[in-house]
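User: I'm writing a tutorial on reading structure tokens. Could you give me a worked example: one chain, its sequence, then its tokens, then a sentence or two explaining what the tokens reveal?
Assistant: Sure. Here is the example chain.
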Amino acid sequence: MKKPDQLTIRYRAADELVRYERNARTHSAGQIEQIKASLRKFGWTNPALTAGDDVLAGHGRLEAATQMWAAGETIANCPVPGQVPTVDLSHLSADERRAYILADNKLAENAGWDVDLLAAELLDLRDAEFDLTVIGFSPDELGDLLDPPGPATSAVRRSLAEQFMVPPFSTLNARDAAWQERKAAWLGLGIQSELGRNAPAYASASDHQKAEQGAAPQHRTSIFDPVLCELAYRWFCPAGGLVLDPFAGGSVRGIVAARLGRPYVGMELRGEQVAANRDQLHLVQTEDPVPAWHVGDSRQIARRLPDVEADFLFSCPPYADLERYSDDPADLSTMDYPAFITAYREVVAGAVSLLKPDRFACFVVGDVREKRGTGPYRNFVSDTIDAFIDAGMRLYNEAILLTALGSAPIRAGKQFAASRKLGKVHQNVLVFVKGDWKRAVAACGDVVLGDDLFPEPDE
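And here are its predicted structure tokens:
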């Protein structure tokens, strides 16, 4: 069917429009109430999109309007109760219609906010005594935007993203478009942290989540998120400070550290992994410190690396026996959980002993279930916290890293119906401090952005 030269608005009875039964976008009761408030204030301003009788966009508005009419309310721009403005898109094919339903929701979701401009607009509306509740922000969100703590200096008014790369909240969203763009830039350098992981039993630290969700081990693994590395180094490691990684795994944490001017020392049990990491040293610029990977059992890290004085301890440990990395009996992933925790605590204690006083440590972890993903949780996150506390450090920050959904939405329904297990789509970012936190903060200095990490290629 030929595309129309112009769109025409046609009023149609809402009860003759067929809602798409496989609409993946959900509308909670609370959001329907928000849509009602918007309809009361602004009227119906955005036509529903249809293809014949089928609704492509406007499901939430139709539900809210139907409830309002049932309660005897009227809606501006809907002069006849029960009728709504629509635009017909019947020229789209069946597959294009299905795709558009997804795109209409996802593209809007990918947008971000300029926090300063948003706050300024809200402040102006509040000063004009406009009812901000109809906009859709929660009271807590409005409070954070309109009444931020601290003096109203220019630094506070600047966008948090401009100051710190991403807002320093306890939720870090790796699904955000800006985060994904930054990750693509890092990977565009040629980082291949999956190299060296071709053994059938081996998978990367960042694949823990896949296994937790029930995915089968794979030979082609994803890599530790380089953006999370960059944040950890910029936020918690002094400029030029030495990074110590007792569970080195792939190359990404070392390469990112080097590109940010931080010396890196990592220990890894598997010699083939260290060799693969060293093969990527060409990604380090000549002026950068060269990352050093050592082959060895990290339980002996304090004895093997006695001269190391680290400014930051950063790692992602194996998640018990969730994934088996090798058949080496020294590999923690081959041990039962009690033995694993004993060995794990030795590694933490040894690494902490190499960390300077008044410095931070950060471990990225996730809980694991008994019996390789099928039972109750083992409380590995708490065991990690206990290990650091017993090693002389204190928990200083904890954040949730929202990771890519992957196939979780497809599997979650069946998994939840059968077991009531929630699909796991996050990891825990735990930050500890050794000594005086004020001195640790002072040692880190200001968060400095603007490095030319991704120069344009020569013409």
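What the tokens reveal: DSSP finds 18 helices and twelve strands in the chain. The two ends are 45 Å apart (CA to CA).
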